[in-house]
Design a protein that fits this description.
The complex is a heterodimer of chains A (about 180) and B (about 675). With about 180 residues, chain A is of the alpha/beta class. Chain A contains six helices and ten strands. An eight-stranded mixed beta sheet of chain A has the order 3-4-2-5-6-7-8-10, sandwiched between helices. Chain B has seven helices and 36 strands. Chain B has a 27-stranded mixed beta sheet that branches. Chain B has a five-stranded mixed beta sheet with strand order 1-6-7-4-5. The chains are: A alpha/beta (about 180), B mainly beta (about 675).
Chain lengths: ~180, ~675
């Protein structure tokens, strides 16, 4: 198609229209969408010890960055995994008394991480973090970037202590730290 | 008019497509299988890149992953893949790197920094690329800003800024070692060790040895000025070897403070072949020579965040380099101190201010051809930067205005203002506009150089030509307008387009008398001509760059780009002197790049590259089309074996000329086999 000069204004207004009608999503950090999708696969490939709880939902508690919580809500809310509906809740500290299946600690403040992990130590909670020292503090799974791809490291000893089991289908994509107690 | 119409069409197409793509990214990510999920390239959706995409400037980010996948063995090789940059190979060691025109061996209108420390040397205004080296594994990303950036970045950022950012010492734990070999890069070994003994402190130490042999019996070309090019039929020895070691310490003593200290020591030696002018266009003096570089730097920075609204950064750096060329040499020192503060005033206003001081001093010597007069010199410059950002409509419309004032020992007060607007109709797209003025301060080279240009035949008589700089040179100026548009559609694709128009004033040229001076020396008649630098030139350039990123499949990404440059310059007509350009820039109007990054499986990665360039207008260096490939195999998470080939079809193309007596050789096919192991 050849553009004649007379057509330019019409095209310009179309261009402007194009700009205005496009997406209105709230600003978020795009890696969070990938992290949220990974959390979803952890929910798919993890088994929690049976509890007497009447509530059969899978609860993901998130503390730290509000932007991540927003994305987790968008990706996970309304999804059902193994016939269990997923619920995302935002918490200020892990001491809030309710059983959660996954605790996502989205902060790199050492003191906050330690406190959060201490609060869920005796519960069947899969702890997921994103700080370089998350496993050192006693976390179970840490999301990290390796060679431009997302990966995770997992401490099997910590995991065994919580009674939570992650399928080998998922584990083979991560780096294993800690030996299973025999 | 035509580029503008194209832009409109493009904006239209993009706008409509994006409208249909709302909500796509999250939907398709969670439908991916586990295998695909861990294969999605994080960098395509990188956080930093997105932050930068909100900058009201033409920004491109080369990520660590891009650099690794490019198979680059040095920074300029990695920079070849930045849209809008002109990166030309000279002799396998030195490079021409520039943005938006003015491309010469030492491009004087582009500022290059590592972690905020300037590599631009006041000795001859430019970057000595063959003395710049970092372990590429240490590079977190390279941010390239095309267009004037004085207010944001520093002096001499007339046509662009290249900011190389290295990784925090915390970023990687453990060691990495790599060895590489190939036909040009004969051997390269790198080792580094990262550790974080406590939460508050982390360190990295690294070392690197390299040996290369770029010459292959190819012809060598010397541009001798006045349209005369000398050809050496066979260049056989341009071997170069270098060793370098360095460290980086990072500390975070509390939540509010952060500090970093880094430094390195290096030594480099290379063989050269140089041609000195004797009698143009008949005779040159061809000589083998040796160039040696040695030096090091120390750089410290401290960031204090007293509240979410106030952040202060203090930077200190010192570097010393000994440069020993076959014709000239010297020891140069550069010391900078710089303070910046960012303060949020109210809901919608952010104010930045900064002040800095730079002292440069050197001691030079001369062997032949070129000399500095005086031999020792010092240059001081103090600066103040003020900038304010207003959010007219929060997260929608932002305006920023700033000015940089420099007072230097050459040209005294310089002002460089900039005004920018950013309109962000949604989080995924933005339109920006900028108007700026920038200056390029004269260098020691421009002011104090004395050149022996040999003799020139004029009407059959030899005329002895000598050149000199001038202390009355003023700064070259640029006034520019830029407009840009970018769109990111979630994880799938993004497009970035920008256009610019710049007017250059007071460009450096040289003037010579209309008739040679006639003297009788010991009974013989001699003719001589004194050529002196001045500011007689003016110039204009316009053009544009457009690049995109398309995640075709979860493991396949395409990155196409195209840039156009139209560069013109003028010298005044004169009846009492001859005006000439000293060394005109290499001007390549059309450049296109295409990279394909393909994850064939979890362990195999294939990268294909294509590069097309039109003919250079000033030296008639030919246009070319080059392809390359890299295959990397990760047998384990911790190791990588890669094989890369550049210039697959073995096109022997001369890409650039040097304005110094250094040789330029054509490129050839090169390959590198590399093993990287973490431990």
């Amino acid at each position: 198609m050849r553009l004649r000069p007379g057509r330019a204004p019409a095209l310009a207004s179309l261009a402007l229209f194009g700009l205005l009608v496009s997406s209105r999503a709230t600003p978020s950090e795009p890696e969070d969408e990938l992290k949220s999708a990974i959390v979803l696969s952890f929910l798919r490939y993890t088994e929690w010890p049976a509890t007497a709880s009447a509530d059969d939902s899978l609860t993901v508690a998130v503390m730290g960055r509000p932007s991540l919580a927003q994305v987790l809500h968008r990706v996970l809310d309304g999804k059902v995994v193994n016939d269990r509906p997923i619920r995302v809740i935002e918490i200020k500290s892990a001491a809030e008394p309710q059983p959660v299946q996954v605790l996502y600690v989205a902060t790199d403040q050492g003191a906050e991480i330690k406190r959060a992990l201490a609060d869920v130590r005796s519960t069947h909670t899969l702890t997921i973090g994103e700080s370089g020292r998350f496993l050192n503090y006693g976390g179970a799974v840490n999301l990290l970037e390796v060679d431009g791809h997302m990966s995770f490291e997992v401490d099997l000893q910590v995991l065994a202590a919580t009674g939570v089991e992650i399928s080998s289908k998922l584990l083979r994509y991560g780096q294993i730290k800690g030996k299973l107690p025999r | 008019m035509r580029p503008f119409s194209l832009m409109i069409l493009l904006a239209f197409a993009l706008g409509i497509c994006s409208a249909q793509r709302v909500g796509v990214p999250t939907d398709d990510l969670d439908k991916l299988g586990v295998d695909e999920l861990f294969n999605v390239q994080v960098t395509s959706v990188g956080r930093k890149a997105q932050e930068l995409s909100k900058a009201p400037a033409a920004v491109f980010v080369l990520t660590a992953e891009d650099i690794r996948r490019s198979g680059a063995t040095c920074i300029p090789e990695a920079l070849q893949w930045v849209p809008g940059l002109t990166v030309l190979h000279l002799d396998g060691r030195s490079w021409v790197v520039s943005a938006r025109g003015s491309a010469t061996l030492y491009s004087n209108k582009i500022l290059v920094m590592i972690d905020g420390r300037s590599l631009y040397t006041p000795l001859f205004a430019g970057v000595i690329w063959d003395a710049v080296d970092v372990d590429l594994e240490d590079v977190e990303q390279i941010e390239v800003v095309r267009g004037p950036g004085a207010v944001m970045w520093g002096p001499n950022a007339v046509n662009g800024v290249i900011n190389i950012i290295t990784k925090h010492a915390q970023a990687a734990k453990g060691g990495t070692a790599s060895i590489a070999t190939g036909n040009q890069l004969r051997g390269d070994a790198q080792v580094r060790w990262d550790a974080a003994p406590s939460e508050e402190f982390a360190y990295r130490v690294w070392g690197k040895l390299e040996e290369s042999t770029p010459a292959y019996g190819s012809p060598g070309y010397f541009f001798m000025g006045r349209g005369y090019t000398y050809r050496d039929p066979s260049v056989n020895d341009l071997d170069a070897a270098s060793g370098r070691m360095g460290f980086r310490f990072d500390g975070k003593p509390d939540g509010k403070d952060q500090w970093m200290v880094e430094g390195d020591l290096y030594r480099m030696g290379r063989h050269d072949v140089n041609a000195y002018p004797l009698l143009a266009p008949v005779k040159v003096d061809l000589e083998n020579g040796h160039t040696g570089y040695a030096g090091g730097y120390l750089h410290g920075s401290w960031t204090h965040t007293s509240s979410a609204a106030t952040e202060s950064v203090l930077n200190f750096s010192w570097n010393r380099d000994n440069l020993d060329y076959p014709y000239v040499g010297g020891a140069i020192n550069n010391l900078t101190v710089d303070f910046q503060q960012r303060q949020k005033i109210g809901e919608r206003n952010e104010f930045y201010w900064g002040a800095g001081y730079q002292q440069y001093w050197d001691q030079t010597y001369s062997n032949r051809f070129a000399a500095f007069n005086p031999r020792r010199s010092a240059y001081r410059v103090g600066d103040v930067v003020l900038r304010d950002e207003w959010q007219f409509v929060p997260d929608r419309l932002m305006a920023s205005a700033g000015i940089r004032l420099d007072s230097n020992s050459y040209s005294h007060l310089e002002y460089q203002p900039s005004f920018r607007l950013l309109y962000t109709p949604s989080s995924r797209q933005s339109v920006w506009f900028a108007a700026s003025r920038a200056v390029r301060v004269p260098s020691r080279f421009d002011r104090d150089l004395r050149l022996d240009d040999g003799q020139v035949l004029a009407d059959g008589f030899p005329v002895t030509v000598s050149g000199s700089g001038s202390e009355s040179l003023a700064s070259e100026t640029e006034r520019g307008l830029e407009v840009g548009y970018r769109l990111q559609s979630g994880q799938r694709w993004s497009v970035d387009a920008s256009t610019f128009w710049s007017y250059y004033g007071r460009l450096q040229a040289i003037q010579s008398p209309l008739v040679p001076t006639i003297a009788i020396d010991g009974g013989t008649l001699t003719l001589s001509e004194q050529v002196v630098a001045d500011n007689a030139g003016t110039g204009r350039s316009y053009g544009g760059e457009v690049w995109g990123m398309w995640q075709v499949l979860s493991g396949w990404r395409l990155i196409p780009s195209y840039s156009y440059l139209n560069e013109t310059d003028w010298l005044p007509a004169s009846t009492n002197v001859n005006y000439q350009w000293n060394f005109r820039p290499l001007t390549v109007p059309h450049q296109g790049l295409l990279r394909s990054q393909h994850d064939l499986s979890r362990t195999l990665r294939l990268d294909l590259t294509a590069k097309a360039r039109s003919r250079d207008l000033n030296y008639a260096a030919p246009g070319t089309f080059l392809v390359g490939a890299r295959l990397a195999w990760h047998p384990t998470r911790w190791g990588e074996l890669s094989f890369s080939v550049d210039n697959l079809t073995d096109r022997k193309v001369l890409e650039a000329y040097s304005q110094m007596p250094n040789v330029a050789i054509p490129i050839r096919r090169t390959f590198v086999l590399k093993w990287t192991q973490r431990f």
